[in-house]
Design goal:
alpha/beta, Carbamate kinase, seven-stranded mixed beta sheet, globular
């Protein structure tokens, strides 16, 4: 059984690398692998703080000189995801025998028990890569881990009336996040990925990645805190 996890850059590398989180995350995944010899994971790494910092630097340097090219900003973000993914792959050692996946449309085999993937190309986020890999490997669920516990009706930092959501349909969720992908856009699950997940019948669960007790519950089918989209 393959479980797909979109491992948000905001928890792997919010600014610098969160070493303590990675130690605990690796321990949890190894525990689950040892407890079930049939279990496999696909981990798709986001870009996090480094992606946004480098994208912002690009925009600031070229300000007043030329127009911002989203394609260039997107490539910068893609490269940040690949650096994070290479770190995750290295950490899992023998569990991850394959190279980091950078084109999800060409990945169809796993020789180890963990497959690590990164960003693909401009116009798509690592969330979209996760939905493509879920489709490729026959998974019906993508677990989206980030620095938020649940999806809210609005931005709780700006809207005190925003309320947490336990479950939401794809139609309603897509109305919230829109249709356009912008490099560095901060949404619970990106619009392009949401459209693909909706069209292919995927379920996505958004949860706080650093709450490892909650993640363990989620992965073992026990009650958990998060938002189910589908």
């Amino acid at each position: 059984m393959v479980t797909v996890i979109s491992l948000g850059g905001s928890i792997v590398a919010p600014d610098g690398v969160d070493v303590e989180f990675l130690k605990q995350f690796v321990g949890l995944i190894e525990e689950l692998l040892e407890g079930d010899p049939e279990k496999q994971f696909i981990l798709v790494s986001g870009g996090g703080g480094p992606a946004r910092a480098w994208q912002n630097a690009y925009r600031e340097v070229i300000a007043n000189r030329t127009a911002v090219v989203n394609n260039e900003a997107d490539w910068i973000g893609v490269m940040a995801t690949r650096l994070n993914a290479q770190l995750v792959k290295a950490i899992f050692g023998e569990y991850c025998k394959d190279p980091v996946v950078t084109d999800p449309t060409r990945a169809n085999t796993m020789t180890g028990r963990i497959l690590v993937a990164a960003g693909w190309k401009p116009g798509f986020s690592s969330d979209y890569d996760a939905t493509l890999l879920a489709e490729q490997f026959g998974a019906k669920l993508v677990i989206n881990l980030s620095n938020i516990e649940k999806v809210y009706t609005g931005d709780p930092k700006k809207d005190p009336a925003a309320k947490p959501i336990d479950a939401i349909s794809w139609a309603d969720f897509r109305a919230m996040v829109g249709e356009e992908w912008v490099p560095g856009k901060n949404v619970p699950f990106d619009p392009v990925a949401s459209r693909h997940a909706s069209e292919t019948g995927l379920t996505v669960i958004c949860a706080a990645g650093k709450n490892l007790r909650n993640l363990k519950n989620l992965l073992q089918g026990a009650p958990f805190t998060g938002t189910t989209i589908g």
